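Bumping with the actual sequence this time:
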Amino acid sequence: MREKNPIFMVVGAGLTGAVIARSLADGGYRCVVIEKSDHVAGNCHTMRDLATGILMHCYGPHTLHSDNNEVWDFVSRFAEIRPYIHRKQAWVNNVLYPFPVNLTALKMFFGKQLDEAQAAKLLAGKARPYAARRPRNFEEAALAAVGPEIYHGFYRGYTKKQWGRDPATLPTFFFKRIPVHFDDKRNVFHHEKQGQPVNGYTDMVEKMLDHEKIEVRLNCEFSHEMFTPEMQHLFFSGPLDEYFGWCFGRLPYRTLDFKFETMDGTFQQCGTVNYCDESVPFTRIFEHKHFWPWEPQNSKTIITYEFPRECDPGDRQFYPVNLDEAQSLCKKYETLATGQTRVSFVGRLGSYRYLDMDKAIEEALHAARESLRCIGSGLGIPAFFPGRTYLSEGKKRRGLLKSHAIDRIICRPHLK
């Protein structure tokens, strides 16, 4: 028998779980948040290095960027968000270029003096021989966009290291249109609002979860027995396949290994440098203090090398490898998930998609809002929320499942 004042369980104290828990708590409902790690904030976890005082990204660099005012207003309740424009560079054949590729990079790479029109014409000519037919894979899509020189210089080696597969074997939906600026813009992101929480992401998420109706249990591995009958609903932001005990097998992911180094001075000119050559074993180096330019000057610095590899059991999942076999496997788990009556699967792991932080927050706010609406209507909360498909994102990008997109919430009858 469930209580008149229901308790909700949220598995995972990353951004998705924290946003849902806080939204439900603000709505007057108690939440128990289960987190297997010893910290909140998931992959955007930040902490200060005790020796240097430098604020560090523990699982790769993160930046906030969004055009959604609701997202920005929500996170601004829990942190001061200071302006920060992310800059990157690319190391190609022992030369450091601006990145994404811009006019300066094109002039350096081709050794020519070019204006904007000449640069656009040059690249269009390089790509023209590859643009005549419909691309069948990542490599063909990239060649049709930027031509062979830029593709082989900046993208082929990096992509092969990132995914552990030849780009010619990757489907076209892995290819997001490669940004090339024919002026000297260096923006990685083009959202109206860009910034960083002044004291890092973990501090922001801790404040998000600081509510009298939220109980956070760290170092706590979820088991189905924890979700007791008196609890109203479970929001599961862990891996979709893990919830079902990997009964059909494991969904494939790529993970990352990190190597941290402390040294004197400053190592590079910006936060992130991509190392595009296949012969270099890591994909990028990020230097932590560039991400917080308001911090006091520090005579020391910390850099991190990033090494992608296949995800093994027990590893932290970063990027879903959404190939055909994985899509078929994901569909089996999604079918099981839609048969659950008191569980919703949320976030990037719960839906087997890669999500930027702004999209994760946006979807979590929407999930909480729709859940509160269902509760108020006496209806059950759905397994998945609008804005995604019941099949994988890869097929959606290929245009095969437009009719399957969930355009409105369908609340299930509330089961007593």
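The tokens above came from a reply further down the thread. Residues 388-416 have pLDDT under 50 and may be disordered.
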